[in-house]
Amino acid sequence: MNDNVVYLHGKPREVAQVTRVGYREHALCEQLLSANKLGTRRFVLEAATESTRRHKSLVRSLKDRKAEIVLDTNCAELSVKGRFAGSVKSAPWSAEGRALEAEDFVPGTNRSVIEPIARYAVKNEITALLSPSHLLTEGGPDWLPVDLKSCEALRVALDRYGGGHIPIDYPLLISYTQFRDPSVRKNLREALRDLPVDRIWLRIAGFGVDATGVGMSRVVEGSRDFHELGIPIIADQVGGVAAIAISAMGGVSGFASGIEGKQRFDASTWLRPAASGGGSGAKRIFIAGLDRFLSTGEMRTFFDDTRTSRHLFGCSDPSCCGDVDKMLRNPAAHLAVQSGRLVSSLSETPEAIRAEQFLENHLREHVKTAARASRIRNMDYELRRKVASSVKRLELAFEALSGLHDGLGTVELPAEAKFRSGSRQTELNLEEKNHEFRRTQNS
């Protein structure tokens, strides 16, 4: 059907939606793909799971579908006290019993992780590679010079091992406080300007699915500082209204989020030794009308107690769930289908009216739905408190983003994150983009 659409002023830029496959989500991802519930064509796989049988099976399935596969080296996690000994220790370049140090990113040494990463990417036919980088925090280790050199060294190593066609993306991991500082953003932009990278991935600590309207507005404004680099910008580990808002309002080219998690980047435990124990493990479902996750148990009780709740939040769409029972049994499928449709609709909306359409047809409707839910009488106290919190947050988000929209005027959008299929044309474009870097290296 979409092939027959005629765009009088050119096809609108696509909002890139990337699925991050978490450590235990490989089987779930394959299940959703086989059931045709996961419409995204772009995926991030983590190096920490590369040796598992589930990982290899998923990679085969993605390659059969000619998907875009981006490898996260997990070097950021492998370099901090709170993460290196956890699940990421399975990455092929992890150090035995310790976190990675600056010396591990010096190419050509026995400790270097650069060459193993390049060889792995070439051998496994990865579409693109996230360059090794680290969390930048105020008062923390100064990793930026190390990361910039690592990126350049990785380009050289990829070329040497036959991976000249593999683009490098640069993950910019930064605290929200640092990102809010205009001078920090300017320095980062200039530092990234001459790197041989295809796109920037913004992973902002403390920002994600639960972001406030003010937070969303600030991320949109801050992201605009990187537009002049002329390459796409992906908001990493962001979900819900926040992901759609910063994409629709021209801050970023798209976003990446997980199937069940990785909807918010929380680095609060990264710089201290890992604590034992974990979460409750309760199954959760994302309720778009409230823009939040709730336990399936809470929603089951809510649906059983009131007919209005089923009308507001239940999925009766036969092409998605069809009824609330199936919706609660497979919440990941519901989220995948609904978010995919929303992004597709947003991508088909002309850029000139995209922000307005998001505000009026999406965010305002969420505000109305949440407000209606808050008036339901037969509701558990704890759930009522969560609904009330969602109402207030969505209302404030609408006010903040509407104010931003009114004040922005003409928005200069970031470059489109076009699908990277590994085609010959993609290789030619990459060769042209990296020519100047290689010429400089050889001079």
Describe the structure.
This protein has 443 residues and is α/β, with parallel strands linked by helices. It has two domains: 8-258, Alpha-Beta Barrel (TIM Barrel), CATH 3.20.20.70; 284-408, no CATH class. The protein has helices spanning 26-34, 53-64, 75-78, 114-123, 144-160, 176-179, 182-192, 213-223, 240-248, 296-305, 307-313, 324-329, 331-347, 351-374, 381-408, 424-442, and strands at 16-20, 42-46, 68-72, 128-130, 135-136, 168-175, 199-205, 233-236, 254-258, 284-287, 292-295. The strands form two sheets. An eight-stranded parallel beta barrel has the order 1-2-3-4-6-7-8-9, surrounded by four helices. It has a two-stranded antiparallel ribbon with strand order 10-11. A hairpin with a 4-residue loop joins strand 10 (284-287) and strand 11. Helix 1 (26-34) runs parallel beside helix 2 (53-64), helix 8 (213-223) runs parallel beside helix 15 and helix 9 (240-248) runs antiparallel to helix 14. It is globular. The model has no long low-confidence stretch (mean pLDDT 90).
